[in-house]
Each structure stands twice: as C-alpha cells, then as structure tokens.
Amino acid sequence: METDKPLMTLALHEAPEEATYDFHPKAFEEYLGQKELKTKLQLYCHAAQLRGEPLDHLLLFGPPGLGKTTLALIMAQVMRVGIKICNGPMLERTGDMVALLSSLEPRDILFIDEIHRMATPVEEVLYNAMEHFRVDVIVGQGPGAKSINLPLHPFTLVGATTKSGMLSAPLQSRFGISERLDYYSDEDLQAIILQSAQFLNLKLSPESALRIAGCARGTPRIAKKLLRRVRDFAQIHNQNHATDILVQESLNFLGIDPEGLTQLDHKIIKMLVEHNGGPLGLETLASLVGEDSQTIEEVYEPFLMRKGFIERTPRGRQIPHKRLQTLILQKTGQSALF
Ligand SMILES: Nc1ncnc2c1ncn2[C@@H]1O[C@H](COP(=O)(O)OP(=O)(O)O)[C@@H](O)[C@H]1O
Ligand SMILES: [Mg+2]
Prior knowledge:
- It is built from 13 helices and 12 strands.
- With 338 residues, the protein is of the alpha/beta class.
- The chain has 3 domains: 8-180, P-loop containing nucleotide triphosphate hydrolases (Rossmann fold, 3-Layer(aba) Sandwich), CATH 3.40.50.300; 186-253, Helicase, Ruva Protein, domain 3 (Orthogonal Bundle); 263-332, Winged helix-like DNA-binding domain superfamily/Winged helix DNA-binding domain (Arc Repressor Mutant, subunit A, Orthogonal Bundle).
- The strands form 4 sheets. Strands 1-3-4-7-2-8 form a 6-stranded mixed beta sheet, with helices on one face. It has a two-stranded antiparallel sheet with strand order 5-6.
- Helix 8 crosses helix 9 and helix 10 (263-274) crosses helix 11 (282-289).
- Bound molecules: adenosine-5'-diphosphate and magnesium ion.
- The site of adenosine-5'-diphosphate has 17 residues, from helix 2 and helix 8.
C-alpha cells in the first residue's frame, strides 16, 4: 500500500508554485472564454454543493494547454475541497492507486491527467472506487492472502485526456459528466493576454494583444508563453512597455510570421507542396519534417486547418486545390515561405 513516488498534493486554497511568475485563474470569473462549458460546470458545482455531495465524476478532453488542469483547480476552490493531482502513467501499481484513493478526504477532487495512459490493473481499481466508493485490498501473501473490501470517502474523479477516443469504454462510462474544451477564439486569447499582461505589469495595447493572440494557435498556454517572451524584449528595450513595433519584432525574432506560422508550419506546407500538395499520411508527413506525429496532429495541424493550409482526407493530409495554386506561384516567385 506504499507509494514510492511523491504525489503532488495541493491543500485547500493552495496554488501551484509557478503562480508567482504568471497569472493563473483561481475563480470561474477569471477563467476567460469557454463560456458554455463554464456555465455548465458552475451549475454542477453549485448543485452538488447545495446537496452537500461530491461533484459527479468529470472527464475533460481537449488538446494540451487549453485549461483542463486550471479548471480542476478552480472547481476545488469553488467547492472548498482539497485536490490531489497526479498523472496516469505515474501510477504504476494498483497499490499506488489504492494509497491515493484512501488518502482522500470526503468530497475531495482527485485529478488524473493523461488518464488514458494508466496501466490496465490500476485503471480497474478505479471502476469500483468510482461507482461504489470502495476498493479491494489484498492483505498477506501466498495461500494465506485475503482480499478485504475497504470503504472510501466519497470523492470526485476529474480525468483529463487529449483524446476521448483513447479512453477505455468501461472507464469512460463511469464518468457522469464528459466535456470537451475547444480551441479559443483570437478575441478570448486577447482577453487572456491582457489579463496576464496586467499581472506581469506590462503595458500592452489591445491591438498588440490581438496580434499575439493571432499567433497563439487557439491555445492559452501558447498565448502566455509568447507574452512572456515579448515581456523579455520589453524589459531589455524600454522597461515594461510592449509597443506594437516591439511586439512585431519579438514575434519575428521567435520565428513567427505575420500569419502566426512557425518554421515548422512552413516546413509542413513546403513538404506538401513538394509532394504535389499531397495527400500524405500523417506518419509520412511527420517523418519528412522530423516531428512526432502526435505533436503534428495536436499542435500544428489544427491551426494549419483553421488557416486553410491543410485539409484532411481519407487518404491523408493535403493542401486545398486553390491554395496550392497560389503556393506554387509563390514558390516560383521565391516568396518568404520557400
Ligand atoms: N480560460 C483561461 N483563462 C485564462 N488562463 C487560462 C485559461 N485556460 C488556461 N489558462 C492558462 O493557460 C495555461 C495552460 O492551462 P492548463 O490548465 O495547464 O492546460 P491543460 O491542463 O489543458 O494542458 C495555464 O497557465 C493557465 O493558467
Ligand atoms: Mg494539464
């Protein structure tokens, strides 16, 4: 029943350490965008609180950096319960899971990131725990070993995964609530950037914030990372004022073009153009540009699709026909892309 790896434990109202260096929303009001999802979760939290019950088990799915962990932390704050955070692959033995579950106080939240990557026996411990708040523990060894069925305090499991399809059916069916996080609009990202800039004491116009937002691929984590780099530039050049010129120069220095495309996006487009616009299978494309296929699928492709550079077909990824014509012309004209 002992875990040999420390589990990150957050006591009530305690924020992660990085919170000192950047702004992290601590309440639903500070969590910008994702309006519909927020409204639903607020309602569920409120209703559970009125009943004095734990929130139903919740599965959050969506690409990395969209705010899943942040939402779990906010829910713990709102419900005034403790939260334990761990990662699916980190839980190697059933004993790890049993120890973790037994350490929960009534109504606590157990947040498991990358929940689709748990070992099957560990996952199986969760089934009974989620449904009946009980776990089976084997005591003793050999012929004298006995199985004891132990009660647990009622808790809420919040699972996060990048793809719901990767979760096993028995686990998926035990979540009362399943919600998807979508990529953010540029306007929502603009608000998130301005919120962070204020916290970082950085002067930034709404127009400049929108410029950064346009390069953030619909993802708050990327938006905030870009903002911190812009702040580095501002710090060196003129204290804490990020003028629009400075923002443009910083983005340029980071290898991001005015459309928000990085060097790897360029490489992907170039490869496709060189292969007559495609179609190319994901794995082929990934090996041609030297990036892992999951990263291409989760980080690069969605933005390129939104920008109209790529479309998915049953035969692979390809450049839409009209776009290909302009790109070939650009290639002959030796534009910046080639
Ligand atoms: N809706 C939001 N409003 C403001 N900041 C956000 C929002 N969603 C995410 N963030 C910020 O973006 C970063 C990534 O969020 P995180 O919760 O770690 O994403 P995920 O768990 O989905 O990978 C964090 O710094 C977080 O504070
Ligand atoms: Mg996370």
